[in-house]
Amino acid sequence: KLPVFIYNIPSTVKTFIKPQVIVELAETCENIVGVKDSTGDWTNSLDLIARLGERTDFSIFLGSHVALGAALLFGADGGVVSIANVAPKESVALYHAAKARDIDEVHRLQKWMLRLSKMYTYGQGVSGMKACLEILGVCSARTTSPLLPLGDTEKAELRELLTELGVRE
Question: Is 18 a catalytic residue?
Answer without folding.
Answer: no
